[in-house]
Amino acid sequence: MSQDAVEPTDMVAPGTRLNKWLAETGVCSRREADAWIAAGRIGVNGAVASLGTRVLSDDAVTVDGLPAQAARRKIYLALHKPIGVECTTDRRVAGNIIDFVGHSERVFPVGRLDRDSEGLILLTNDGDIVNALLRAEHGHEKEYLVEVDRPVTPAFLAALSQGVPILDTVTLPCHTWVVGKNTFGIVLTQGLNRQIRRMCEYFDYTVRRLRRVRVVNVELGALPAGRWRDLTAAELAGLLPDRFATPAATVAEAQALLKTRKTPSSRPRG
Length: 270
Known about the structure:
Elements: E1 16-17, H1 18-25, H2 30-38, E2 42-44, E3 47-48, E4 54-55, E5 61-63, E6 66-67, E7 76-81, H3 97-101, E8 108-110, E9 118-124, H4 130-134, E10 142-148, H5 154-162, E11 165-166, E12 169-170, E13 175-180, E14 183-188, H6 195-202, E15 207-215, E16 218-219, E17 228-230, H7 233-239, H8 248-260
Parallel strand pairs: 9-15
Antiparallel strand pairs: 1-4, 2-3, 2-5, 5-6, 7-9, 7-17, 8-9, 10-14, 10-15, 11-12, 13-14, 15-16
Helix pairs in contact: 1-2, 7-8
């Protein structure tokens, strides 16, 4: 054998290491891939894969028996949307939320916030959760702080809480409370177009500032305007407990967060 010859054992095997392939495909991280492979959850061409498995372009990779592409990593984000960002996936629209977030995965907003409003909005690439979160009959709470153009009165807040005739319907009863001279809090369980602004306009109030601070159990908190973060496992468990199966400890953490949060019903109402 010549000096320049390469021993067969030193040759690089064809294909891509399975954990790298899974990460690059967006199914999971490399660390998660190693754990899934070790647990026997990954198959290649019908056989259970091992940690040293390499993948070729025409190989069939499965996760728990399903095509790997169907197991792409799900993204769940909380964004502090600033004023001026449009909640549309149409990237031809200036200031659209997709370009603003700039995530590597194709995400979309769950619901919307008006261009002139700010605060918490969720984004995801998981279309299965959208209807569960947005349908009014599910009663998911969304909490807002609202500043108006003149002093808030008990009669005004009481009227808001009882339901307001707008858009050929009457809004559902809601919680309201005084925050400041011209500011109040409100919790809605429905999402009509420009609902809070229209409710205020009905009583000759003009909204000066509108900020969403909570969606179910997910709080805006101290997240700076224009920044986003991933939802935690506890937040997902509290947000949609029937959708996200989690360890008992995580469920307990989610329940503890809900119990310690001061609920709107315990706040004084207008």
